[in-house]
Request: fold
Amino acid sequence: MKCDGFDGLTINPDRSRRIDLHMHSYYSDGRFSPTELLGKCKDSGLEIVSLTDHENVGGIDEALEAGEKLGIKVIPGIEFATEFQGQEHHIIGYFIDRNSQKLKEFLDKLKESKAEQIKEIIKNLQAFGFRVSFEEVASLAKGSLDRYHIVLTILPDHEKTLKGKEEHRDFFKKFLMEKSGGGEGLAFVERKKPDIRLIIDAIHESGGVAFWAHPFWRIKDGSIIRELAATFKKMKLNGIEVLYPYHSKDQSLLLHELGRDLLLYESAGSDFHREDTTIRQLANFQDFGIKINFPFCLKETR
Reply:
């Protein structure tokens, strides 16, 4: 497989703990600034990371600067929620040009749709008796607006204690998490997501490569994963996230096999957002002896 400007880098299992190619800052729904996040990456011994905030590139410059000071290679990234045949799939773009005007215009449109979703959710919460306004929620967003900002508005400062973190998770699951994701969804409103083809094309147009993130997120049937991977490959998908905290050994091996069979690159990431009791902590994924093949960029990323 050829990818202009890139060269495959095989990451051996003994080095997999030194990479994390899926993490979020407070420019989307993460807890920490890019600088704070990179500091934690340094403390964790990471050498190659990617900031992949949801539909936002606002934190990349700060992450690059912090990485340069700390001796950590930072790959510009972004994560999108997409739709295919009525089901949600997440796509990560790596090595994107965060200064692309086309990308900026595209993200501005997605920002509008997210704002409409949040407004509708807030109306539902108000009907339940919660005193919260869109203006309050929006004021907390450093970059892209997210349901997480609603939680921070209604339950401020709760992340400082274990009990508070649990209350955050319980509130999110009861009111803001859709039923298909395991929540009760009492106030949830679905957002119309862009077609997966549109996102893959947008990533390519911004100079990046497109990866299917956590394929087993909501799909447990390996045969369906195989079919979808082959379909997405025809849409010019470049890679697949093989190592992920919630992937079992069998799932990771299946994805690794797909990467080889379909000539897809492979990635590994924790999907880190914040320090709590979940397993999505920095580099907290098992490698199962798998050597992933990731396209390490040879050109400058600044």
